[in-house]
Amino acid sequence: MSVNFDYIAPYYSLGEKLCFGEKLNFHRTLFPQVLRSSGKILLLGEGRGKFLEFLLKENNSCEVVVIESSKRMAESIYNLIPCGDRFRVEIKNIPIEYFNSDHKFDLICSFFFWDCFSKNQIKRSIPLMLNLINNKGYWHNADFVDHRKITCYHTLKNFIFIRILYFFFRHTTGLDVKSVFPVRSLILKSNMRLIQSLESNSKLLKSDLFRKIEEY
User: Fold this and answer.
1) CATH number of the CATH domain containing 15
2) Closest CA to 119 of 178, 40, 163
């Protein structure tokens, strides 16, 4: 069965609110200074568009490209964009592996996105995204932390919680991934350096801000 998030799209925001409150949004909006200073921004897997709505208010001059493979999610994103801002946003309703661009971006945002991909898919996609970042550009990645070693109550609870999430998405979307692959190591193998990082007190969520080392 192919992966399709259309079925859960109408309930996605409510589900996030019930499970996490504002914790995911906190990690999405951790680095507002970078959001405000970026001219061209790429969003990977924007869901129903709540972060995009925040971004357009924080930065009134940026241009945004959104990659969202779910048709119903993409429709929801478009409907949230104020009419006066629609000229600044391009929504690509395609899987990430089909995306290519002649433009470079000042910032890439990937929020709770890579947990939907296998290790091999991620290894193919990360280099493609890295090539789209401008010199001295940024990448803000936030994701779940899937601890491989159970060292305390928090890591045990999170391990069980992530398995429940994957069970749910497997039966509602066809997702066949079973664990969250840590992308930090792949990003750092390129000419990117980690400049800020924050892990939640529960050890379930983590945000990394990378910056591209200038090439001459």
Assistant:
1) 3.40.50.150
2) 178
Please, are residues 42 and 7 in contact by the beta-carbon 8 Å criterion?
A: no
Pairing mode of beta strands 105-111, 133-144: parallel
Query: Average pLDDT for residues 58-71, to the nearest whole number?
Result: 95
Q: How far apart are the C-alpha atoms of 214 and 216, rounded to whole Å?
A: 7
Q: Helix, strand, or coil here: 132?
A: coil
User: Tens digit of pLDDT for each residue in 69-83?
Assistant: 999 999 999 999 999
In a domain, 86, yes or no: yes
Give residue for tokens 């995204």.
Answer: 129
The pLDDT of residue 1 is 42
118-157 tens-digit pLDDT: 999 999 999 999 999 999 999 999 999 987 777 777 788 8
CB 118 within 8 A of CB 197: no
Encoded tokens for 98: 């089909």
Encoded tokens for 180: 């969250």
Which residues span the domain enclosing 92? 9-212
The side-by-side arrangement of strands in the sheet containing 205-212 is 89-92, 63-67, 40-44, 105-111, 133-144, 205-212, 192-199
- Contact status, residue 93 vs residue 45, Cβ threshold 8 Å: no
Number of domains, the chain = 1
